[in-house]
Each structure stands twice: as C-alpha cells, then as structure tokens.
Amino acid sequence: MSVKTRIETALERFIFMSRWLMAPFYVGLVIALGLLLVVFAQEVLHYVPLAFQPMHEKSSSNAILAVLSLVDITLAANLLLIVIFAGYENFVSRLDLDGEDDRPPWMGTVDFSALKIKLIASIVAISAIQLLRFFMQEPVGVPGMNVEEARWRVIIHLTFVFSGVLLALMDWLVGKTPKH
C-alpha cells in the first residue's frame, strides 16, 4: 500500500468517525425532551384545579385553551423524538435494538427527506394550534384585538404551510427524476 493510499484511507476513516461528534447533540435533545416533560407536568398541575372551579361562561373556552396547550407541548415532544431517532440513525449510527418488542415500526425507515416533511408538518400543526389559541383568546372583531398581530400570525402560519407544500413538491419532483 502506497503512502498516498494510507494517508487517504486514514483521512477517510477520520472523516467517517467525525459523525460521532453529532452524538452529544442528540443527548442534548433527549435532555430537552425531559424539560418538555417538566413543562407538560407543570401545565397539567396548573389546569387540574381550574377544572373544579364553579362554571362560568368562559369555562369551555378555558378548557379548550388548556387542552390546546397540552397538545402543543405533546406535538413539540413528538417532533423532538422523531428528530432524535431519525437524526441519530441517519447521521451517527444504527440503533441496535434487536429483541425490543415495542420498537416503533417507522424507526430505521425515516430518511432525511421524510424527516424534513415530518418536521415541517409538525411545525405547521404547532403553528396552527398557536394561531387557534390566539384567536380564542382574542376573538375577531372584539374591540381591543390587535389586528396587526393577528395579521402577522396568519402570515407566518401561511408561510409555514407554503414552505411545507414546496418541500413536499420538491421531494415529489426528485422522486420522479431519473437517477444518474
């Protein structure tokens, strides 16, 4: 083996091993998932006592807002979990979980393209929930509603939706393009 070949092989192995530099990022995301669990528990503990207060006309709206808040946190946690699993398997190493009976069927099948679509779909869902919460707290046409803020929230949400449609269209076009 020539010196050039040995240097090239060593460099390629070094570059290949550099993928492990991503592992701490995924550990950090697992910690963030734990922090989301703490926030979720705080929200539940905040809303449970409110459910036993006497009924008034805003009780149903407040209950819906509470549920939307919990769904919002859950969607963010699902998004984190998808990024952790798919990112680790795509960029660091396969999860060796042979014998695990409850391994989700999608694990190991989410490539970077599918991850992008799942990511933008989750962002759109989270944005939609935030928009719905805003409009439930600030009903349209009510004096004092911040119309400018409402307009920007809708524009931002539609930007996420449009971006998602464009990403899906690009993936579809790439799938239809003959491979080289």
TrEMBL record:
Q: InterPro entries from the entry?
A: UPF0114 (IPR005134), UPF0114_bac (IPR020761)
**According to its UniProt record, where is this protein located?**
Cell membrane
Taxonomically, the superkingdom here is Bacteria
Keywords from the named record: Cell membrane, Membrane, Transmembrane, Transmembrane helix
The cross-references to Pfam families, in alphabetical order and at most eight, read:
UPF0114
Instruction: Classify the protein's membrane topology as the record does.
Output: Multi-pass membrane protein
Which ranges does the record mark as transmembrane?
20-42, 62-88, 117-135, 155-174
Q: Which HAMAP family match?
A: UPF0114 (MF_00143)
Q: What is this protein called?
A: UPF0114 protein GGR12_003236
Organism lineage:
Bacteria, Pseudomonadati, Pseudomonadota, Alphaproteobacteria, Caulobacterales
